[in-house]
Amino acid sequence: MGDWAALPESSSFMLAVFAFQASLRLALRFIGNVGPFDPTRSRFDAQNEWESVTSRQFVRGFLVGRAEMRNLGKRYVLGVDGGGTKTAACIAELKLGFSGKPSVGAIRARGFGGPGNPLSGGFAVACGNICAAIDQAKSQMKIKIDGSTESTTIESACICLAGAGRPEEQHRVREEMMARGIADSVLVTGDIEPIQWAAEFESQQAIGLEIPGELWERCITLIAGTGSIALGVQPNSNPVRAGGWGYLLGDEGSGFDIGLTALKDLCRATDQCRPLTPLHLGLLQGLSIEEARDLVGAVYQSDKPQQIIASLASTVLSYAESDPLVETIASRVAYAWAELVDCVHHQLGLHEKPFTLAIAGGIAVHSPFLAERLLKILEERSMKPSLFRVVQHPVHGALTMAARNTLS
After folding, report:
1. What pTM value is reported for the model?
2. pLDDT exceeds cutoff 60 at 249
3. pLDDT in tens, 116-131
4. Are 375 and 384 in contact (CB under 8 A)?
5. How many Å is the maximal CA-CA distance in the chain?
């Protein structure tokens, strides 16, 4: 074709775009084929993840490439994740992201406080702990709680709390946070909603590239902590749920389920005069008791027996390679998770549609081999997700929701 400079300007531009697209595909293919399976690292398969992203999206991203790196006048977003044991707050810069929409930039500060569940801990206590975490984060940036220092403002805040799944709790918390002036705009949700956006954010951080938000808009979220629940969302459809029935009616595959199964085996071993295994001894140590006969007092005299039992899950799973019982428990957990995903998948009517999967909760984070087993089961059922992530910090999803809320 001769001299490149002789090409029309539009042709040069399109060649640059196609070169950019090809380079990105090669880079992602390299990333997707390096190293063994590691759900916490979110290994990506370039072909599955990016085939659906059209050339038009790449052109649009190319056009706003310079804008992606520009802060929006030193404006910030605030995310808060509050649970039954602690509250995490995070402040990040607000920037222009893919397609010129506001998104999360560099994280600037973090803060922590006590329990943020308004139902289990009480409304006043929860709000106090939430504000303590926010104050700690703001103090790192030298911003007072009322935002009066300098001209730096928090554009939007998203408060995601366990125990705030109903509109009544959400409205009450929002009014309190607005009265305290934590941000110009405040959104309050339950603790499961931010998980899919935390997965998106952490996936982008893992590969160093911004992923189009459309890839995570059809998502199944699984939380496996003290309890277990799954949520499914997709565009133009109402969210659906499975699980979340509590420790008396359900919570299969949860920390409580794991701990209770192991404790029952300890009780049976004692009744049958069987020698105690290392797992049994680990359970006694985890409860700070010496003999099985002390179990009744340790469990039934506790104010929160379900949490005591659920706290033993990590101890139980640490024996996965040496104790046949734990191997059985782990297999049961993986199938229980698969059932939750299957129920949500069916309710959404996904069938052959691609979807993403985000998992959160201490069980999944600290025992990644369970997520690997889950993926194998889903693949056997022809439900393998196109994208997958074990979320480390749900507060990152609250940040993303706060950034998205600036559009409303």
Report:
1. 0.74
2. yes
3. 888 877 899 999 999 9
4. yes
5. 90
